[in-house]
Amino acid sequence: MSSDAATPTTPVARVKSTGLHKGEIGPGVAKVDPILVADGVKRTFGGLTAVDVDHLEIPRNAITALIGPNGAGKTTLFNLLTGFDKPDQGSWAFDGKSLSGVPAFKVSQRGQVRTFQLTKSLGLLTVLENMKLGAQHQRGEKFFSGLFPWLWRAQEAEFDVKALELLKRFKLDTKKDDFAASLSGGQRKLLEMARALMSDPTLVMLDEPMAGVNPALTQSLLEHILNLKDQGMTVLFVEHDMHMVRHIADWVVVMAEGRVVAEGPPADVMKDPAVIDAYLGAHQDVDLGVVTGRYEGELSNEAAELVAEIEEAQADAGQQKGKE
Ligand SMILES: Nc1ncnc2c1ncn2[C@@H]1O[C@H](COP(=O)(O)OP(=O)(O)OP(=O)(O)O)[C@@H](O)[C@H]1O
């Protein structure tokens, strides 16, 4: 890892977005300005219902976290909304236009982009080549334009400039000619994010941005995600790291067994008995970190704090029940 990439940028204090919803908070609550609206989306695998979402709205220009225990259906929902999988039923619209049945490459052309993990084959491309894969409307790929090399050469040069600018912003410019496979876990995450920005998206969907990231790069990654919002983009991310969720999310959507069981501002959601039930369920004796697979063995201070918070909320919920 380059020492540059590991240097955390100075954190900037940012106010969280509030007032994102209309009416009483609960699963499926309407948003003041939704960028993505899903209705009746269901996906089954044999007898198993992986996703069964009645209604979901994602607020524009905010950071929304999609959380839930293992197997809750988060990744399947991500795959459906981005055209990587097809639902049994349901519809959804991005920026007011239906996206149902639209294939993944067209979804990203419309401005809704998701990060995808560096597979083995992408690891054998250089960092710069990976970036150029994220660019849209590649003229050289079209038959007619392909006949006139000067057209695609000009575009190729544009992509080079854009890719290098982004790599610089993500402190990966010195790695541009390295195989992507040689990057550290955190640098890969940065590359995934930088690659997604090649197509100037409106909505960026991040799949577990913190997984496998060394603590030295955590701050830098968080800053990059917050910057996306500052630049007018909307962020939707799946994450198991509750500390990160509380730290950067303006809104949290909780899934369990395919359904949205709760949503709201992070501080409120973490205290919602439905969320505690979803995570702890039958495992009342197990801490949240172990349930989410994020912590093994000894808990970090943050995780211990969160578990204490949940236990406190559980005790409150128990006391309230007792009073009823
Ligand atoms: N291709 C598939 N074939 C069969 N079952 C699947 C398939 N994809 C997902 N599932 C099942 O659907 C359910 C939801 O899985 P999904 O990966 O969406 O959950 P998740 O919330 O993303 O979990 P995790 O946090 O562990 O990634 C799980 O029970 C999973 O085993």
From TrEMBL:
- Classification via CDD domains: ABC_Mj1267_LivG_branched
Region entry Disordered, spans:
1-20
ABC transporter domain residues are: 36-282
Alphabetically list the UniProt keywords.
Answer: ATP-binding, Coiled coil, Nucleotide-binding, Transport
List, alphabetically, the SUPFAM superfamilies matched. Answer: P-loop containing nucleoside triphosphate hydrolases
| Bias-annotated ranges (Polar residues) | 1-10
GO MF terms on file?
ATP binding; ATP hydrolysis activity
**What PANTHER family does this protein map onto?**
CONSERVED COMPONENT OF ABC TRANSPORTER FOR NATURAL AMINO ACIDS (PTHR45772:SF9), CONSERVED COMPONENT OF ABC TRANSPORTER FOR NATURAL AMINO ACIDS-RELATED (PTHR45772)
Keyword Cell membrane assigned to the entry: answer is no
Q: What is this protein called in UniProt?
A: ABC transporter ATP-binding protein
- Source species taxonomy: Bacteria, Bacillati, Actinomycetota, Actinomycetes, Micrococcales
Task: Point out the coiled-coil segments of this chain.
Answer: 296-323
Any one cellular-component term (Gene Ontology): plasma membrane
Q: Which Pfam families match?
A: ABC_tran, BCA_ABC_TP_C
